[in-house]
Amino acid sequence: MSTGLERDPAIELSDDDLEALLGDRALARDDHLNAPGFVVRPDDVQSVLSDLRDEAGFDHLANLTAQQYADRYESIYHLRKYADPTQEVSIVVPTTTDDPVSQSAEPVFRTADWHEREAFDLVGIDYEGHPDPRRILLPETWQGHPLSEDYNQEKPQLVTLSEHANPVQPDHHDDESDTMFLNIGPHHPATHGVLHIETVLDGETVVDVDPDIGYLHRCEEQMCQQGTYRHQIMPYPDRWDYVSAGLLNEWAYARTAEDLADIEVPEYAQVIRTMGAELCRIASHMLALATFALDVYGDFTAIFQYGMRDREVVQDILEDLTGQRLMFNYFRLGGVAWDLPEPRKEFIEKTRDFLDGLPAKVDEYHDLLTGNEIFQVRTHDTGILEPEVAKQYGCTGPVARGSGIDYDLRRDDPYGYYDNLEWDVVTEDGCDNYSRVLVRMQEVEESAKIIEQCLDLLEDWPEDERTVQSNVPRTLKPDADTEIYRAVEGAKGELGIYIRSDGTDKPGRFKIRSPCFHNLSALPEMSEGEYIPDLIASLGSLDIVLGEVDR
Amino acid sequence: MSSDQPRQSIYDSTAPSTDTRDSRIGEGADDRFNSKLREAFGSTPFILTKFDKFMNWVRGNSMFMLQFGIACCSIEMMHTYAIKHDLDRFGAGVPRASPRQADVMIVPGTIVSKFGPRMKRVYDQMPEPKFVVGMGSCTISGGPFQEGYNVVKGAEEIIPIDIHVPGCPPRPEALVYGIAKLQERIRNGESTPVVVKPYELEEFGDLPKDELVQKLADDIDEDDLVMRYNWADSP
Ligand code: SF4
Fold first, then answer.
1. Which of A33, A334, A377, B94 has the most CB atoms within 10 Å of its CB?
2. What is the pLDDT of residues A96-141, one digit of tens each?
3. pLDDT single digits (tens) B116-168
4. Any domain includes A467
């Protein structure tokens, strides 16, 4: 805090205050629907961001969007506050087409490290002073930047196998040390998919960790930019966080697009959405628990199968509601696809049955996991993530809440029906693997509370007000150059989307802010200096899903 | 020649190559089922025919799966292994973490350029006879991501596939059905011919020196293994 002027970070600053703070570094205004936006010069990035962080309390770099226009490149830093995420500001940094160089924000926000690598990889902006300017999602040998304007997708590409050095080899970090290099993944049961972690070990202690991602980079942003707003984009969010968290992801797109195109959602549909989303959260947290037990105990028989058993029940309910077990595609802009299944009574009863059985099951998990001595020894005080560090990396969701950061968009930036329901945000301040597991388990119970209340509401809803969709024009064409960033609380944290419309029925730029991307980037902080089994436990407790990390 | 000009036999035109498809239909069984004994004794002796039958029966009834999660489909694959669907009932449900202990690889998800060489390597590490089940539309054609700049248009571009299970994702029941079909084929000693595969791992030094190769010459060692993706030739 350079001025000594101790402000309450939650205090709201008006646009004029911000303008005064930036002074003549703000070249122009470029407001977004969600936040005031200021255009700054490429070499002012660090000073502007650090002033905003230290003097105005914007301590959360939620996202960085890079894009190319016909005449320039642009990086947009989306800032908000952990204390009050409804306060947002966007910093827009234009650079020329011939020489797209901008100052790196990494010294101010650690999370800018991965973001700027991604911006370089996909769009082609260079960041001056970046500590590690490599590609991140695509292979090192890739030619061109796929989201830039002149990229030709038909050109052949070469990918090497030797990127993956010999899995076990001596490492000549320096002459003194007796370290060993160890490759974990991309095909490894503990990496939860196709993640590759390059580790350097000294004995059993982890000296260096470098997560190498991009083995599931499925061009989600490109796909969304090719789809029309109304129907073609909605199926993709299901596939970002594919651990049954589909409805939560769909909500991220629905919320953003509805705010962009000014679409009303009937209250009844909001209740259904809220219920569906919380069911998804339960399913997702169950899998997190199950696989965490698999990582820590190698237990394929008991806890893993218990988790799967409970997921099956949730998936059944969701299938009744949406018609699919995993890729629901149930939300529509302006509501949901259809009403609760008939006979409604039966559906509600089935869901209630599940909720009634849940406390006993949660107790069972507590007996098996958190009450178990081995588990406690393995997870207590391992994988420490201090709140300040977590904020630097933009961690959100159960990972942040396990470090005592009281941040939940369902409450802090309300949407849907959450505002009218009784429930609590769970936090734990142990900052370790154990806390993160505890947070998830308690969140399951909170979700159950929410569903319970939604069911009551749905049951008694007046028969003639059960509108599931509002009237939405067949083709949506938001005004050109409207920009918006909106986020929801996904299963893993803040799942945000930035959309810039270009006047057509498809987005001009569609950028996904993935919570797992941020959470995973904090892995080195959590595991360096610890034992290698703790690295595996930390990775499990982050509960990443590669579809969302790589997009 | 510029790098966007496809070359050589399969690179000749940008039209979809049909070689692969034709050879898939080609002559009968390949030699994946043949034992060393059979090779030594020739193909007629009665006792060995019975022995082969027996071996095929054994193979079909005790398949070890490779624990191989890629994308969304792997969630449904886990459900297939787990309680309720319990693939093990059909003698095919013990996931093995190491490819060297596995007979069957279920490919559950989207293959992207960076993962292609890795998957090929894992496949090569499995001992013969080995079988592959492609799960989901991504392994058939790239599925919903078919137009992506980074997505391989189907797992068959890289490894041969015995059974395709369509769906996005296929339900566990569908995967169980696909595996039951595979078992049936193995018991009957039928197999898909190993196909011509467009994308192979090659040594960098062996590649024709076109523009792309020359550009990368400084970064890649002569004997590094590389995979070359000719997107224009993809189906
Ligand atoms: S087929 Fe569908 S569910 Fe399966 S990996 Fe592809 S996108 Fe995911």
1. A334
2. 888 888 888 888 888 888 988 898 888 888 888 888 888 888 888 8
3. 888 888 888 888 778 888 899 988 888 888 888 888 888 888 888 888 899 88
4. yes
- Distance (Å) from CA B142 to ligand 1 centroid: 9
Cis peptide preceding A343, ω within 30 of 0? yes
Closest CA to A450 of A427, A489, A418: A418
Residue of A nearest to B217 (CA): A141
Give B 115-154 residues with CB within 8 A of chain A: 115-119, 121-122, 144-145, 147-151
- Of the three residues A128, A145, A168, the one that is the final residue of a domain is A128
Per DSSP, the three-state class of A432 is coil
Instruction: Please give the residue range of the domain that contains residue B80.
Output: 63-187
CB distance A239–B72 less than 8 Å? yes
Question: B70 at the A interface (CB within 8 A)?
Answer: yes
Mean pLDDT of A348-361: 90
- Closest by CA to B64, choosing from B126, B125, B121, is B126
Residue A1 has pLDDT above 50, yes or no: no
Q: Is the Cβ pair A159, B114 closer than 8 Å?
A: yes
Is residue A138 one of the residues assigned to a domain?
Answer: no
Q: How many domains does one find in chain A?
A: 2
* CA dihedral angle for residue B42, residue B44, residue B48, residue B49, rounded to 10 degrees: 130
Q: Is residue B141 in contact with ligand 1, taking CB distance under 6 Å?
A: no
B197 C-alpha to ligand 1 centroid (Å)? 22
Residue B181 C-alpha, separation from nearest chain A C-alpha, in angstroms: 23
CB contact under 8 A, B114 and A151: no
Q: Best of B79, B107, B111, B137 to mutate for ligand 1, by most ligand atoms within 8 A of CB?
A: B137
In chain A, what is the straight-line distance between the N-terminal and C-terminal CA atoms, in Å? Answer: 36
A236 chain-B contacts, CB cut-off 8 A: 144
Q: Which chain B residues touch A308 with a CB distance below 8 Å?
A: 78-79, 82-84
Domains in chain B, number: 3
For the segment A25-65, what is each residue's pLDDT rounded down to a tens digit?
Answer: 877 788 888 888 888 888 888 888 888 888 888 888 888 89
ipTM passes above 0.90: no
Q: Identify the CA nearest to A523 among candidates A108, A62, A111.
A: A111
C-alpha neighbours within 13 Å on the C-beta side of residue A507: 30
CA distance B163 to chain A (A): 22
- Tokens 């589909």 correspond to A246
User: Residues A279-337: pLDDT tens digits?
Assistant: 999 999 988 888 888 888 776 777 888 888 888 999 889 999 888 888 888 988 888 88
CATH at A102: 3.30.460.80
Q: What is the CA radius of gyration of chain A?
A: 23
Q: Pinpoint the alpha helices (H) of A298-408.
A: 303-322, 344-365, 373-379, 387-392, 397-401
For residues B45 and B130, membership in a common domain is answered with no
CA distance A399 to A540: 11
Cβ-based neighbour number of residue A22 at 10 Å:
20
Size of interface A-B (CB pairs under 8 A): 179
Alpha-carbon gap, residue A164 to A184, rounded angstroms: 10
> Per residue in A113-123, pLDDT tens?
898 889 888 88
Distance A545 CA to ligand 1 centre (A): 14
B223/A83: higher pLDDT: A83
